[in-house]
Amino acid sequence: QVQLVESGGGLVPPGGSLTLTCVLSGSFVVNWNMGWYRQAPGKQRELVAVDTTDRITDYAESVKGRFTISRDNAKNTVYLQMTSLQPEDTAVYYCNRGPRTSVPELGRHLSDYLPGYWWGQGTQVTVSS
Prior knowledge:
single chain, 0% helix, mainly beta, 4-stranded antiparallel beta sheet, globular, 44% strand, 7-stranded mixed beta sheet
């Protein structure tokens, strides 16, 4: 049984930082594209960062330069380092195994990815003073 467990969310003031962690079991991150999505109240779930098996990373425009996705294959874990957090980053953040696209790397956009089947339970990030 595949399972993803996120942790690391919390309440931070604007300008603060958090690192989210996603531990995968029943599968190996080394074999999969991994992504972080978020869903704010009343909004659709959106992909904010992806790390492919080809070690290509991509980010939503709203988080570029502030968020960093990484993985530790030995720990079967994916991370999302978030800095300079703003109130608009407030959302539930979800880890996803296997976001995929058939669009070649050249010309590919984050919106070209479709989510994989397996999700974590989510971790709440609240940015507020």
